């Protein structure tokens, strides 16, 4: 079961119909797990990701002692990875792929494809970090500084190895400076200083609006 020995009996089988027929006709043989794996790979090549995932899922569930367990888990992660979206969009598939890649690396640290999985882990972590960066940047432009800080600090805490750390750090400093200016004017509104004859130009409300509506850099 599994391994290169499976290539000989499956040599004449060249695509989805053949492997699908084998799985349906021989659901419990020593080569059924191999057939499921190759059927999943065929669906993957045809970009039928849901069908591919179903084959790898079945292999993992029904054949726990198969030597193809590791490869099936990696291919399942790839199915999610290939369905994932750029950072501005929903990241459900990205997170699911990341979970499965991490599971693969933890369970099979000596597997020949661990390097491939680790490379994808870093790429997906960078994408999730970018998602947080985009949120932080958006809230900064909207002058929602507390929300902006929340997302930027999450990025630094959860993805300290991300390529976006330097950008997040820079934005966080800008946001902190802007928050300080805004809070200073708010405090002045509540507790106006004694008149000195050298009052700053403009009422506090007007100056606050100026801070909040000024164009953000970047």
TrEMBL record:
Composition bias type Basic and acidic residues, residue spans: 179-191, 198-209
Domain of life from the UniProt record: Bacteria
TPR repeats: 33-66
Region (Disordered) residue spans: 179-218
Domain Outer membrane lipoprotein BamD-like, first and last residues per copy: 18-189
Pfam families referenced in this protein's UniProt entry, alphabetically: YfiO
Keywords annotated in UniProt: Cell outer membrane, Membrane, Signal, TPR repeat
Designated name of the protein: Outer membrane protein assembly factor BamD
Source species of the chain: Eiseniibacteriota bacterium
Gene: bamD
